[in-house]
Specification:
5 strands, single chain, alpha+beta
Length: about 200
């Protein structure tokens, strides 16, 4: 017996097609920028922001993209398309940082000890979103593969997720040594937790 698709099945199919279309559009824009064919406005909008503060060894990256949603399903074509694009955009941002000298080049990872990776998703559409529905794995993987962090296991990397309303949609990542993050960046005293 053949099962007819329900309205929910059709909505899922449409949602997956929309995700794939957005990923392909972003890939086309990325290719146009690389070929020098994009307008200055597009180049400015899609150029990643990257900065490094040597005194606190804190790295900040912002890209105009959010990772794939875990609910899309890691085996779907849409998820793989968005994951691949997101990985490339983070790689491009890190390459820009290395090429411009913002991120110091080294044979060792930039962060050799325990780190805090603070991920804040920016949303311009003012819709309430669950930040834990986004898959941070592609981001963490590219940080490890690019030599920014040494490991991504629980003993080494502490992950903090947040979201905010913003004028543009994207992902902001702040990476810092664990001690520095809690002492200077977070302005947080852990002794207060034990009282």
């Amino acid at each position: 017996m053949v099962r007819l698709k329900t309205r929910a099945d059709h909505m899922e199919d449409i949602a997956e097609l929309l995700v794939m279309a957005q990923a392909r559009l972003n890939r086309i824009i990325r290719d146009e920028i690389a070929a020098g064919l994009a307008s200055p406005e597009i180049v400015e909008k899609y150029t990643p922001e990257i900065s490094h503060v040597p005194e606190t060894n804190t790295l900040r990256i912002f890209i105009e993209a959010c990772p794939p949603k875990a609910s899309v399903g890691p085996k779907t074509k849409a998820y793989k398309e968005v994951r691949s694009l997101y990985y490339m955009l983070i790689q491009d941002a890190l390459k820009k940082g290395f090429d411009s000298g913002v991120i110091p080049r080294s044979r060792r990872p930039l962060y050799a000890g325990p780190v805090v990776i603070f991920i804040r998703y920016h949303f311009s559409d003012r819709v309430n979103k669950d930040v834990d529905n986004f898959d941070a794995k592609p981001l963490i993987d590219v940080l490890r593969h690019s030599g920014i962090i040494q490991e991504d296991n629980y003993k080494y990397a502490k992950l903090i997720l947040a979201g905010t309303n913003s004028t543009k949609t994207g992902t902001e990542v702040i990476i810092s040594d664990e001690d520095t993050f809690f002492a200077k960046c977070w302005n947080f005293n852990t002794e207060n937790l034990h009282r």
